[in-house]
Amino acid sequence: MRIEQLGKLSPIAVPGAIFASANKDTFIELSNYQQITFLIESGEGTAGSTTITVEAKAGASGTAVAIPFMYMEKGDANYVEKAATGAAFGIGGASGASKYAVITVTSPMLANGEYDRVAIKTTAVTSSTVPGAIYAIQSQPRYSV
Question: How confident is the model over 52-62, as pLDDT tens digits?
Fold first, then answer.
């Protein structure tokens, strides 16, 4: 495997207290990739819960629509399909309680609506100081870059 086939990594929310406000509106185009995986990491701190959803749209000016996605948390053995209404993700916790969630969307999941871009959304956790980060990994390129 050539290194170009591994994918493209894009920061969505850089490390910091990202859960105090909603994360949204960073749409990533998938025209050259067949899969996108979002990695949401949470560090230690006052426990809380955020809701993760995925939105898709056709074109930059298209209307965003919530879509189902594949979901797995640290310690899970397999992905599970989550409805468009989202998944609750517990953030924070005692010392050493870091955790992560992995969210994956494939191009066949977008085909029905002819969507070409997706965004990850998290709801705000009031006054949260829990550190975290969100990254998008585009993989399985359709064409050589």
Answer: 999 999 999 99
